[in-house]
Design a protein that fits this description.
This protein has helices spanning 11-18, 48-65, 78-87, 100-108, 117-126, 129-134, 159-165, 173-185, 198-213, 215-222, 231-245, 253-257, 262-270, 285-292, 330-339, 342-349, 369-381, 389-392, 395-398, 404-414, 419-433; strands at residues 39-44, 68-73, 94-97, 144-151, 154-158, 191-192, 278-281, 301-305, 317-325, 386-387. Strands 1, 2, 3, 4, 9 and 10 form a six-stranded mixed beta sheet that branches. Strands 6-7-5-8 form a four-stranded mixed beta sheet. The protein has 21 helices and ten strands. It has two domains: 11-151 and 321-382, D-Maltodextrin-Binding Protein, domain 2 (3-Layer(aba) Sandwich); 154-315 and 393-433, D-Maltodextrin-Binding Protein, domain 2 (3-Layer(aba) Sandwich), CATH 3.40.190.10. InterPro entries: Bact_solute-bd_prot1, SBP.
């Protein structure tokens, strides 16, 4: 959940991220050779290419400090895996969590170690205050260092299709729906929706809701301080229902969208036999496009900001991954301290497929223009970042396939006219989960 400036960064925002991160960096970093003989175990959900890129970050830490660092992937069910390790008395030194809600749960159970003074100083120096807030649990203690960020407020499109239809990237919801209508009239249903993955639909809901209700109400709904039957929720569902239910908008209609996984929706737009011309999702779409289609990001595949609703300010919903210490070990604290420096962020940023929330990192280290723009947008958003609401919710409501919000919004996609019934179902599920 994240709010604010556009991807075309202002001069001031660019200056903020363009200051070098090596010679001018005064972050508190572990001393060379300071961890010889120490072992550090690290766990995260990452596998494959993402794991390989993070491994280079760990390798750089090991080379600097002399520590022996081992990584294990938990798979997507990280809460269960870590819970078992904690119960068995063998947690890793450090875990990288994909949800602030999981950080809060582990802190509440006494399973996390607060960061040390040097790490706190790095966080306060290198991050906007919102990231410190997101790494702080209900007891007021700072536990987390945000390693990775995501911008989930982007709409990707086939540049050629837009050009052929005479459509320009829209800035408002009205312009967006009008553009989809023009594209539809040109002969192809324009909007690919990966409704087979419930999280895609929660991202749709959150982006529209943030623009309908504003940041303050977004925060309240995320904490379930207002019900999902609130008029702002009904208005959000109404807009989504009108969009998803519009004739000739989604290839094959909502029923087909429910059989379409996220990766397939990207291929529907940018693959060799496109069925649509627009797909909504975060910055990670660039990786999917490059790996799975023949389109070129920045030329044939472009993006624009999620459109404003009723004159709303530019807004961004985002995500990220936060490092926490599960052991009060020298190695755990040293790794968190290092991960809170631009020195660590640069190792991954240069490889691509990564955006850092570290404002001291120079955007010049990103390997291409698209990554630089996306990275600058993360920093430009600053303290107006709003984290993905479903990641803030109890997992029973906001993060479980086939149940809770995921399933309710999938049912809504199947029947986009059922606005009030959907709001009632969401509230019932939230009330049960937030007890």
């Amino acid at each position: 959940m994240k709010l604010l400036p556009r991807l075309a960064a202002t001069t001031a925002a660019f200056a903020l991220v363009a200051t070098g991160c090596s010679s001018n960096d005064t972050s508190k970093s572990p001393a060379s050779g300071s961890l010889k003989g120490e072992s550090v175990q690290v766990s995260a959900v990452w596998s494959g290419e993402e794991q390989a890129r993070f491994q280079k970050v760990l390798d750089a830490f090991a080379a600097k400090t002399g520590a022996t660092v081992t990584f294990s992937s938990t798979g997507n069910d990280i809460a269960t895996v870590l819970g078992s390790k904690i119960s068995g008395g063998q947690p890793p030194d450090v875990a990288i969590l994909p949800q602030p809600g999981l950080l809060a749960d582990l802190a509440r159970k006494g399973s996390l170690q607060p960061v040390d003074a040097d790490t706190r100083a790095n966080v306060e120096k290198n991050y906007a205050p919102i990231w410190k807030t997101l790494g702080t649990a209900g007891d007021g203690k700072l536990y987390g260092v945000w390693v990775k960020a995501a911008n989930k407020s982007l709409i990707w499109y086939q540049a050629e299709k837009f050009s052929q239809a005479g459509v320009r990237p829209p800035k408002t919801w009205e312009e967006f729906t009008a553009a989809l209508g023009t594209l539809s009239d040109a002969g192809t249903p324009p909007l690919a929706v990966g409704g087979g993955d419930g999280w895609v639909l929660t991202d749709w809901f959150e982006n529209v809701y943030l623009r309908v209700a504003g940041a303050e109400k977004y925060d309240k709904l995320a904490r379930h301080e207002i019900p999902f039957t609130d008029p702002t929720v009904v208005e959000t569902l109404t807009l989504l229902g009108q969009l998803w239910g519009a004739p000739n908008t989604i290839p094959g209609g909502p029923a087909s969208a429910l059989q379409t996984k996220f990766e397939q929706s990207v291929t529907q737009v940018f693959g060799p036999s496109p069925k649509a011309s627009v797909v909504f999702e975060g910055d990670f779409v660039a990786t999917n496009i490059q790996k799975e289609t023949g389109a070129k990001v920045g030329t044939t595949a472009k993006f624009f900001d999620f459109p404003a609703v009723k004159g709303s300010q530019p807004a961004v919903v985002g995500g990220g991954d936060v490092a926490v210490a599960l052991k009060n070990s020298k190695g755990a604290h040293a790794l968190l301290r290092w991960l809170a420096t631009p020195e660590a962020a640069e190792v991954w940023a240069r490889q691509g497929g990564f955006l850092s929330p570290d404002k001291s990192l120079s955007s010049s280290v990103y390997p291409d223009e698209t990554s630089r723009k996306l990275g600058e947008a993360i920093i430009a958003a600053g303290n107006d970042f709003r984290f993905d609401m479903s990641d803030l919710a109890p997992s029973a409501f906001g993060g479980t396939p086939g149940s809770g919000e995921w399933k309710i919004l999938q049912d809504f996609l199947a029947n986009p006219a059922d606005v009030r019934g959907t709001a009632t179902k969401l509230e019932a599920a939230a009330a049960a989960a937030y007890k």
